[in-house]
Amino acid sequence: MTELDPFSEQILQTMERHGRLSNIDLAKRVGLSPSACLRRVQEMERAGIIKGYRAIIDRSSISGAITVFVMVGLSKHLRKDALAFEQAMEAASQVQECHNIAGSVEYMLRVEVPDLEGYKTFHANILGTLPQVDSITSYFCLGTSKDVRNRIVKI
Description:
Blueprint: H1 6-17, H2 23-30, H3 34-46, H4 59-63, E1 66-74, H5 79-91, E2 95-100, E3 107-113, H6 116-125, E4 133-140
Antiparallel strand pairs: 1-3, 1-4, 2-3
Helix pairs in contact: 1-2, 2-3
């Protein structure tokens, strides 16, 4: 685990809130010269602390997409079965997140589909065909009051 100094922490916090800031504006906000700020950002990119940059898209405003949280229990607890399941989820475009968790099931998925029929197709044609899957429990998201990963803060 990498230790970060206060300037690097402040850079990360500012970037999380204002991802589109120029390096000059970022440097001003954290109190560094532009060259020192850029050097720190590049070091954090190389170290894998900053994984990438992305646009946050509100899919519900485009297509009325629904989000489903899916708890998946595996039939066997062998490493090869877990890897096969993870590979299948990596290939499934509907799966936005796949988390290996502790508890009564092995995986929690965040699935985004255009509608209920889209989820039925995913459930039957993808999850339902995997020999590793023993149980599937679906929770349909009715709304999201907090999601810091998708927070948009205007500059």
